[in-house]
Amino acid sequence: MSARYAVLGNPLSHTKSPFIHTEFARQFGDDLSYEAIEAPLTGFAETLRAFARDGGLGVNVTVPFKIEAFELADEARDAARICGASNCLKFEAGRIIAENFDGIGLLRDVTTNLGHEVAGKHVLFAGAGGATRGAVAPFLAAGVESITIANRTPSKAETIRDLLGDRGTIHAIGFDDARGGYDIVLNATTTSLTGGKPPLPASVFDDATLAYDLVYGKGLTPFLSDAQTTGVEIADGVGMLVEQAAEAYDWWRGKRPDTAPVIAAMTIPLT
Ligand code: ATR
User: Fold this and answer.
1) pLDDT of 122-145, one tens digit each?
2) Same domain, yes or no, for 119 and 168?
């Protein structure tokens, strides 16, 4: 029987996870099935347990179930605990273990794929939601000099600073105060999903070598368009998406896929 994995979410019509994991399995010649299971909004736990009972080995979890996934796990790894949310579960000896690979996926894309050093650098995150919460610890562990979190609701940035400030230097500010001095500027708000952008000052890119929008498949978002006019390198979240999947594959199966061909196959030009 194939090793069974799945992604659980609702809705799931646009999920790329089955494609990505099928490509990974092909690289190793693994006999693996990866399904997209749209769980009822009030039936996540039931759907998950049924999948595990039927021989499933692990799942990815997406909107809106990431917090519920964390809460019903028997054990959570550091990244999931920091986020209070999980995007990846493993079933082991009847127990559910929660991880969260979004942050490490972003870090790997910025450093390994895009070739930007983060050690000793100043990094700005626009947004203080789950994406930023998951990324701060891996970036600090990689040796960034400082992380600044700019958010519409400053108290949410302050909460992340208070939670993780003992791991490195974190500043929490409003958008108006993000004037410059950042090597890497990341848009981790959800504004690009609806054609908007975070209201950052134009000078925010003055010292930057990379502007990164965490969304995937939205083309040249207003945030990336603003960045591009300053001449800074731009990237969207395709690499982050594939890298977090590779981390999951490695965690589940003990081997790390080659992400480059999958990223190449999924890249949509930023125009
Ligand atoms: P994710 O898990 O993808 O990070 P989230 O937790 O819902 O998503 O967080 C969304 C982020 O986008 C938040 O930082 C949110 O700002 P608030 O904390 O003030 O709500 C930000 N965001 C969403 N819409 C925004 C907008 N129109 N302008 C600025 N920031 C916005």
Assistant:
1) 999 999 999 999 999 999 999 999
2) yes
